[in-house]
Amino acid sequence: MITAGQLRAARAHLDMSQDDVAIASGITKSTLSNIERGVTDGSLRSLDALKQFYERQGLQFTDDDGIKIVRSDVLSYEGVAGFNAFMMDVIETMEKNPGTYCVSNVDETNWLRWQGMEQATKMRDRIAAIPGIRAHILVKEGDNTTFATYAEYRAIPSDVFYNNTSHYMYADKLALIRFTPGNVTVRVLHNRDFAESFKLMFYRFWDMLAVPLHSPLEVKKYA
């Protein structure tokens, strides 16, 4: 069983707050705090959620009450907790590597549906607070709804927009995202060559497209 000491060590290694780990793993902060302090051993569900989260970050828990760093070039995320963990990875990666990230084939209602307005707003505001952050986002032609206040949007013609599949290029990572009615799956390739090649194709489109009109997000539409 994972121990409180291992969980504290894993979180310290990633330099993450309890708030961030709780959001990314899908448990409450109070539950995480109690487990880390040894107040409770934690339920199997909570421990499994934490184990999966830390393994996605390249950490394994060893039998001698330690942790082991296991770097993987491919990370997988799934469901609400997984999607929040992926977005947390975007935030932390951009905090360490401020600059411009790119997202193509975006329907932002998917982000709001899987994160919820409150969580999506918190993450958006945290990204917006990163010094020097910029985002270039390609949306479907005719979609004038924008959510990322720090981003520039341009429109893809509807005949080449592929619904419910998006690509995220941030620092040296490339994420492939697939939304379905009952699930969301994300595959992240931690490989600079893949990220740069997709970014090159992204900007070939970007440079040819017009900037769409921006309109305030209609919050009630997604409540």
Automatic annotation (TrEMBL):
CDD domains in the cross-refs: HTH_XRE (cd00093)
Matches recorded under SUPFAM superfamilies: lambda repressor-like DNA-binding domains (SSF47413)
GO molecular function list: DNA binding
Superkingdom, natural source: Bacteria
Location of the HTH cro/C1-type domain: 7-61
Transmembrane segments: none
Family matches, as InterPro entries: Cro/C1-type_HTH, Lambda_DNA-bd_dom_sf
SMART domains: HTH_XRE
Annotated Gene3D superfamilies: lambda repressor-like DNA-binding domains
Protein name as annotated: HTH cro/C1-type domain-containing protein
Species whose genome carries this gene: Micavibrio aeruginosavorus
